[in-house]
Amino acid sequence: MTRVGAGAGIRSSGGIAWAVTSGATGAFYVACQALLEPGDEVILFEPYYGYHRNTLEALGVVPRYVTLREPGFALPLGELEIALTKRTRALVVNTPGNPSGKVFGRAELEALGAIARERDLFIFTDEVYEHFVFGGHKHVSPASLPGLRERTITMNALSKTFAITGWRIGWIAAERRFTEAFTGLHDLVYVCAPTPLQLACARGLEQLDPEYYAAIAFEYERKRDELCAALADAGLAPQLPDGSYFALADISRLPGANGDERALALLRECGVACVPGTAFWRDGDAHRLGRFCFGKTSPDLDLACRRLRNLQA
Questions:
Q1: CA distance 266 to 233
Q2: What is the pTM assigned to this prediction?
Q3: Distance in angstroms (rounded) separating the CA atoms of residues 47 and 225
């Protein structure tokens, strides 16, 4: 792997450039490959998206975990300061978050930005759910904040926004010198995202008006409320997410010695699947919580909610 910009700080060199990638996951992989070395450390906020952890570990990078705190997955800045070392190279910010549904607020991002500037760190930001924001919350992209544009690596995709998760159309935005390195590595690993699907997405971006994107939040907030009401009726206390299309719920009353067994028990008893918290936490809430998805068609979601309500108390 080749480190880009090592040892000399991060400076603007010709503005921001964009590159199409094979989804946001492809963007994250090549960004890590370009900017990090084995043995470097990167901060992951827990609960984390499993792909972020797995990618870092596959490249020999060491995740350092900072657990977000209840209520509302608050950012514990004191614990973050403790987790930082001389080998820390980056922070990973997923907003809105999977699986937490957390939407990082402007003040939190400014605090992270101050730490990144002081320590000369990159901010890797995964913003795939940027349009899935509820309850008056607003999505803030870290790169839009003063002083963060030059050190933020922004990753996004149309998978969720256009409901095309199998198409693998994403992008990465960063300073031009970084994006040029990402593009070369992406060509080696993926060659390119499928060209006909890129063209189809380009047409969508050209023709869809702002009302389309606004309607996403409206539709999915309704679906969130429907699922969370059913989870509550089933005795699986949900945590109301501020964004994304996932909700965490307490599955500890289900039979089983751990989260995996409880998720399987739920599937057997009512035919509804969840992902156990072991996919997102190392310990703590790993066995208590399950992640439920409301990114479904209305008929499928209605059926799942009926099944949950029939769950034996």
A1: 15
A2: 0.93
A3: 22
